C-alpha cells in the first residue's frame, strides 16, 4: 500500500529535502517536474460565551471569538466552514543535476476556502478567498558541500513543533471563528511560537550518521512596542536576522525511531527611543515512534516575542520607555496511537509571558484521524483553551471540528 501523500510531504519538509513529495512527476528534457498539494475543509462549532471571557477576549483564547468584520466579540456558539491549520495548497517543483550540482526550484501556493472581506463592500457577496505564496525558493548543492537554500520559506525556530503537531491535518485552537481566514491556530501561541515565513539564505550540512545542521540569515522582521498607552511597530535593527538548527535522526530497528533538534534565532530591532534590543529564541524538540505509538515534546524560551509571534503580535514584544523585552516560554506534550487506519491523539500545550504582560495560556486537544483511502482522511477534533491575563481575568473557549483532507 502506498503511504499517505500528506505524510510524505511533511516528511520531505522535515528532512530538509530539496523538493516536496508530489502526486505527479514527469520529465521535461533533463528536468524532473513535480506537482502535488492538498484540499481540506472543516465544519467547526466554537464556544464563545461572553460569561467565560473574563479577560475581555484580549488574549490567545479570545482570538477564537473575535469577529474581524466588527472588531467585537461574538456571544454564543459560532458555526464556520473553513480550512484547518494547514491551508489548501498547490506545490510545484522542478529539479535536475548540472555540473555535479543538484539544483531545484519550488513554488508552493496556499489557498483559503472561506470568503474574505476583500472588496470592502458591505456583506460577503462577490468577495474572494485568500492566496498566499508561502514558499518560493531555490536550492543547490551536493553530498559533499551540503545544500544552499535561498528564497521565501518557513523559519527554523519553531518549525519542528508545528510540523509534528497532530493538528497540522486538523484544527486545534480556532481563530476568528465568526470570520475565519485560511488557517486556524492549531497549537500556535499555546505550545510554540509561529515559525513564520521568512526571506532567507541558509546552508545545510551533509547528513552524517543522522546528524545535520543548518545556519543562515533572514530578512529582519518588525515587531511591536508599547509605552502602556499606544502601540506601534518597531523597526529592524539595520542588519539581518540569524537563525540555526541542529538535528539528529535515529532508527533503532523493531519500529523504534526518532528525531531530536535544537534551534534558535537572534535579530536586532530599533525602538522609538533609539534603543536597539534583540529578539532572541531557543527551542528543543524531540519525537520518538515506538511501533504504533508516537510521542513528541518541545520547549522554548524567547525574548522580544509574545507566545504567538516573533516581535509580538497579540501583545507587544518591547516596552517603548525602558527598552525592556517581553519574556515568553512554553511547550507541548503529545501522544498518538494507530489502530488500523485510525490514529488517536492527545495534545497538551502551555505558554507563558512573564515580564511585560503576564499571561498564561493552556490548550488541550483530542483528535481522531481516519484514512478512508490512501489519499483521503476524515478528521475529528475537540479542543479547549484557557488564557489567564494577570490583573484582568480569564478567557475560556473551546471547539468541536469535523472535516476531511484530500492530499495528492
Automatic annotation (TrEMBL):
GO cellular component: membrane
Entry's Gene Ontology molecular function annotations: porin activity
Alphabetic keyword roster: Signal
Key word Metal-binding present: no
InterPro entries in the cross-refs: Gram_neg_porin_domain, Porin_dom_sf
Spans annotated as Disordered: 222-244
Signal peptide stretch: 1-23
UniProt domain Porin: residue ranges: 12-388
Keyword Signal recorded: yes
Protein name (database record): Porin
